[in-house]
Amino acid sequence: MQWIRAALAYLWSGWGALASILLFFALWDYGNLIYGSFILPSPQETVGRLIELFQEGTAGPELLITSYRSLIGFSIALLVGSGAGILAGLSMTTAMAARPLITILIGVPPIAWIVLALLWFGATDSTPIFTIAVTTLPITFAAGVQGARTLDGDLREMARTFKAPWWLAFIDVHLPHILSYLFPAWITALGMSWKVVVMAELLASNSGVGAGLATARVNLDTSATMAWIVAIVGALLIAEYGILEPIKRRLEQWRDGE
Fold first, then answer.
1. Confidence (pLDDT) at 162
2. Angstrom distance (rounded) from CA 43 to CA 117
3. CA dihedral 160, 92, 251, 248 (to 10 degrees)
4. Rg of the chain (C-alpha set)
5. 209-218 and 59-76 are packed helices; what angle lies between their axes, rounded to 10 degrees?
6. Is domain 59-253 classified as CATH 1.10.3720.10?
7. What global pTM score does this model have?
């Protein structure tokens, strides 16, 4: 019965998100009435064009390529950035030493990383994957540092008092607190990874959603442009609410006393 209650609570919490999406589509349709289809195609035209792209066999493979690149780059940033951030947060010296490097990574624009990656790796999968990883890594690193540094001292003392093994203390005491910082950062990094991968594909690849947008731009096909945008946003929503959000709810059951 517990999993049924959790599933119902998860579905009920989605009504707010659904209402905001419907409001967005209403405003979008209103914009179409004002500016016309050439400037802003209606939601119906966009969805119809997207269906055509799927039927032509164009949208599916390109979305898979983009999703693969985005998730690989995001996973690298998640594992390396979060792990390094947690280690740095446990050591003030390491945190101070890493801070200038993270500032440098943040200061370099994604477009500059794309150009460098294109020179280093050429028009391969490595270019968007590298750009995503190096762009989103500072976000996950900073969250790991903050999560490790802000742990309540009383909780640490309690773990020492009960002589809990270090691994048990980390899993039961440190990790839940750290995750409360990491998950918002992961969601932000995931959204940024989708933006960066499309930009990288637009400039440095002949495949993926970015390449589809480049083709639509050349053909002045506004409806196809909007269709690709809807497709990539839909993929992002699936990744966030279909993968990250359920994991987040599962790992944060301790907040509800479960």
1. 59
2. 36
3. 170
4. 22
5. 130
6. yes
7. 0.78
For residues 107 and 230, is the Cβ–Cβ distance under 8 A?
no
Domain extents for the chain? 59-253
Question: Which tokens go with 42?
Answer: 């209606």
> How many beta carbons lie within 10 A of that of residue 74, not counting itself?
26
- Reported as a single tens digit per residue, the pLDDT across 6-21 is 555 555 556 666 777 7
Please name which of 121, 134, 133, 118 lies closest in space to residue 202, comparing C-alpha atoms: 118
What is the per-residue pLDDT for 237?
82
The answer to whether the CB of 227 falls within 8 A of the CB of 151 is no
233 pLDDT exceeds 80? yes
- Lowest-confidence pick of 151-160, 199-208, 226-235: 151-160
Element at 187 (helix H, strand E): helix 175-204
Rounded Cα gap, residues 117 and 98, in angstroms: 23
Q: Given a cut of 50, is residue 258 above it in pLDDT?
A: no
- Decide: helix, strand or coil at residue 61: helix
Please say whether the beta carbons of 209 and 54 come within 8 A.
no
Instruction: Tokens for 115, please give them.
Output: 């150009």
The residue-averaged pLDDT of 22-34 equals 87
Give the 3-state secondary structure of residue 101: helix
Judge whether residue 154 has pLDDT over 70: no
